[in-house]
Amino acid sequence: MEYLFESLDDTSCLHDFKCGVAPMDCFIQDGLNLSITNHYCNAYLVRENAEESMVMAVFALSFDSLDLDVDDKDEMMSGVSCTDIPKLTDNYREIFLNKSHYPALEIAYLAVSEECHFKGLGRIIVEAIAQKAQMQDLAGCQFLTVEALNAVGNNAVGFYEKCGFSSCEYPNPNKGTLRMFRTLYPISVEDKI
Questions:
Q1: How far is CA 41 from CA 38, 60, 109, 185, in A?
Q2: 51-89: per-residue pLDDT in tens?
Q3: Confidence (pTM)
Q4: Which of 110, 3, 111 lies closest to 47, judged by CA?
């Protein structure tokens, strides 16, 4: 099924949106507009088609930077972490490994309406974001990042792991989220053989 992704300028269409996580619902209905207006993020909504009025999902994107320490890089390059190994040319590999900050695109918010849970829409959105990030030519971008909900009853860590993300920090029960990342340019299956 094809979905329609629309830039979200007017958040009034979200006054009844519910993803089932009360704090996110409140934010989407009442606070997302401020984040858009103040250039924290660009937001998008997902519908089945142009004639459909129901908002199936909402997501927002921001530029980010990913900081990786030596252990993170070793785990990523050896394939120990679940994220894919980045595809690097031989002459760039050492330069890449000597950097401490990497350009990234953050999934600032991603919420699927309760009516659309468990239909694969979240994964479709993540893959569409990855494809758009790879195709954009505004700025360099090597990773996707996200602060995945990591609280009892509201945990998105498993979802993002299934989408190829790895954590880049230890879980902190006082934080409520877990910072995760995914490479945008993984080594292909053919290159691994």
A1: 8, 6, 9, 23
A2: 878 999 999 999 999 998 888 888 888 877 666 788 888
A3: 0.90
A4: 3
Residues 6 or more apart whose Cβ sits within 8 Å of residue 29: 11, 14, 15, 17
Q: Which residues pair with 145 in a beta bridge?
A: 106, 181
The tokens describing 169, both together, are: 């920090």
Tell me the C-alpha distance between 47 and 54, whole Å: 6
Asked if the 4-192 domain carries CATH number 3.30.70.20, the reply is no
Q: Please name the amino acid found at residue 150.
A: N
> Is residue 125 within 8 Å of 88, Cβ to Cβ?
no
Which is it for strands 143-151 and 101-112: parallel, antiparallel or unpaired? parallel
pLDDT category at 193 given cuts 50, 70, 90 is very low
